[in-house]
Here is the input.
Amino acid sequence: MKKCFLLISLFCFMLYFTGCSSEDDLQEQTDNPYFYNTDYIDLWATAEYYELETKERSLIGIKVYLVKTYKQGKLYKFAMQPIDGLEDARTNIYFYVTPEKIYRIWGYVRQDEKLIEFYDNDELIVKYLDTDEKLIENGEIVCQCEEITKENEEGSNVSISVFEDKVVYNRCDIKANGEPGFYERFVWEHNNGLTDYGSGFGAERDILYLEQIMENAGEP
Here is the structure.
């Protein structure tokens, strides 16, 4: 009996640190092991982008902070330092984080036939998306332990792939003429959060690639 108890305890301990291999265990936790789970963190990343038609690479600072706690999850903002040539919608991303999933929240809503944008407005986003349900309706899952491959109603190709301790999300919008439009990629790592990010249009137009996203321990 004692040996059986020890084996069960060891099995549960291994599941806790395995990541996506144990979704049931993740549901019992308060935090999501693929996010930062702190109210505030400073990050660095190597950014690649175009400036005056020249491809540039430089270190940029990123702030991730808690915007609001909801009943079933938390809303965070992933705010990059301004990058010349890229609008706020590209350098500020909101994430709704639950123990099992991470949602990328789109920076706009349609209400009373009006388009309301809040790409960089914390007060406005919590005003219009004031419940967990509204956040989910206005977002898209970019991290979970279940793999998917689908085509959305808008004609977007979306996939989530799981590789041991990493979850990779890819999205590509398809125009009416069949050409690729906006695309986006997230790479999440267990216990490390977002490690790589990429977005752009068509054949690498207006690109923004972030590599080696890591905690800022001081000046790089």
Notes: The longest helix spans residues 2-16.
